[in-house]
Amino acid sequence: MSIDQDLEYDLPMDRLEESEPQCPFGTAGSCCRICYMGPCRVSDGEQGMERGVCGASPGTVAARNLYREIAAGTASHADHAREIAEVLEEIADGDLSDYDVREPEKLRTIAEDLGLDSSGSDTAVAKRVSKAAIEDFQDGNGETLNWMERMPAEQREHLSAQGIQPQESVDKEVARAMHRTTQGNDAEPAHLLTGGLEAGLADGYAGLTMGTDLQDVVFGTPKPVKTTANLGVMEEDQVNIAVHGHSPVLSEMVIKYADELEAKAEEAGAEGINVVGICCTGNELAERQGVPLAAHSSQAELAVTTGALDAMVADIQCIWPGIGDIVECHHTRLITTVDYVNIPGAEHVSFEPETAESDAKEIVERAIEAFGDRHTRQDYAVEIPETPREALVGVSDDFVLEVLTAANPESPAQPIVDALAEGHLKGIVGIVGCPNPKLRRAEMTEHLIEDLLAHDVLPVVTGCIGHITAQAGYLDPAMTDELAGEGLSAVLHDLGAAAGLDGPLPPVWHMGSCVDNSRIGNIVRAISEDSGVPTRELPVVASAPELIAEKAISIGTWALALGLPLHTAPTLHMEDSEEVTHILTEALKDITGGYAIQEENPEAAAVAIRSALDERREALFGEA
Ligand code: BF8
């Protein structure tokens, strides 16, 4: 997998091979290491013990393990949302000079949805909204999270009638999850998994939805914008800075001050400064500013091997420690910026919104310095491997709903419902999450998406799947007629015309980062509320075809709570428990309406997803 530079690297695929065969107990969810009597390997299958030393059953062990995965994902997105909530509060207090309310209308819409007073100045509304946000992290206010107001009301009532709703603070939700899953505490599998659903809802609303809402308010709402993708976006004669991680609070400032420091880069012999994006930071910058999508998370190390990357600037999440090893062979500086995230091999610049200008300039200046080191630190050619692909990104919920509302103000989502009823559109699949090297080998995402498109199913993507699809050409409107079935193609042409574009929408819609899965949730909400069809009956499926992170598990759990079928590959860590497998693949249908589909083969996964969509469409509209 290494680029041919006569250098030997250990890259993710190499390390994956070294890890195999992987532990069958960890894979199947049956390894319990939450206390020091074990580890115990507790399984309903052939392997392991029937009970742990404490007496824990396979169901207890698998349910506790899954619940902890969900809680970790929820904690990650909640911390992300907390940062932008605090930025908004400081904007309201007049404490920040580099950030502002860029979308006052959206701010007011959110305030109204939360039941807050939306009158007065932008800063007055920002103060109320940020207060409601911060309450969701601290002691809370009322029975549940303020941001649960953003959930489709019918499904929310359906769940709360069954006693399922998050506590009033996401911090309490995560702390409770950790407490409940300790040794000798909650042990009943279905009860534990109900806790997992509540943590998933906390993620969906006080993590994802809040994060996107407030980032749009501060940085702008995405609209379709052209960009380019793959490592070919690097420029040999420029200072290349890759921003990696998740938060636009940092990366927007790197862009801003890179522009101001162009002259300094020229003095150093460069033709300019080229900022490119990796993983979800890449998606955040691409959807708002058209910044090129250089690499997904499992390609970040490859970006260094080009020899053209002067700095990789990282904030939070999905920054693989392997990058720290690989920069040692190069002039590239790995710069961490968040004080609670340090990586061996990195240098650190502490970034704070209050000192954004000086911090961001310091980071860009270090990249310019590194450009000057290129010829002293490396004695081989820069090798930028490919020609970039064209991509249209920024197909946000706001954009889609605006186009639909302009065409049909009374009932914006009706054309989508009609297309589903007539069978031109067979369903919508949110294809989200990561690039898992285990499934990259088989190009799982590409095979799955090509099958769905050919069968008139619309894929809506976020996260690193956004990078995979951009690199494959699926975000290019020029590919619509080639990839989409006849019915879907007609829908995409109609929507492109309604949007005033000079052609169709692309066959796959890029809705942003993983936090922006909330945008898919907002589309689902709009269709449900317009049509009166509960979310648990809509022909919409969620799929994480190459999941890696605990964050993908908490997002998936939120989808299950919304009543959606959820496809995952690899299979969830549960196969050694018949009870947990039954709950998530079957029994959950009678609770939330959602259920898990486990399939690692792309063709079989596509068939399973399409039949889940067909079943729902036929139940709603009859055969079409
Ligand atoms: O949050 S898709 S590898 S970058 S977890 Fe991470 Fe997965 Fe990429 Fe964005 Ni999402």
Walk me through this protein's architecture.
It is a single chain. The protein is 48% helix and 10% strand. The chain is an alpha/beta fold and 624 residues long. The protein has three domains: 57-219, Substrate Binding Domain Of Dnak, Chain:A, Domain 2 (Up-down Bundle), CATH 1.20.1270; 231-375, Rossmann fold (3-Layer(aba) Sandwich), CATH 3.40.50.2030; 392-621, 3-Layer(aba) Sandwich (Rossmann fold). The strands form four sheets. It has a six-stranded parallel β-sheet with strand order 6-5-4-7-8-9. Helix 15 packs parallel to helix 22 (517-531) and helix 18 (444-454) packs parallel to helix 25 (602-621). FE(4)-NI(1)-S(5) CLUSTER with Oxygen binds next to helix 11, helix 19 and helix 23.
* CATH architecture descriptor name of the largest domain: 3-Layer(aba) Sandwich
Radius of gyration: 24 Å
Bound molecules: FE(4)-NI(1)-S(5) CLUSTER with Oxygen
Per CATH, what is the topology of the largest domain? Rossmann fold
- Cα shape: globular
Overall residue-averaged pLDDT value = 96
Number of E-state strands: 16
What's the N-to-C terminus distance? 46 Å
Beta-strand content: 5-15%
- The percent of residues in helical segments reads 40-55%
Count of helical regions: 25
The CATH class label of the largest domain is Alpha Beta
Largest sheet: 6 strands, parallel
User: How many domains comprise the coordinates?
Assistant: 3
Low-confidence segments, given as residue ranges, are none
- Class by alpha and beta content: alpha/beta
Major β-sheet strand ordering: 6-5-4-7-8-9
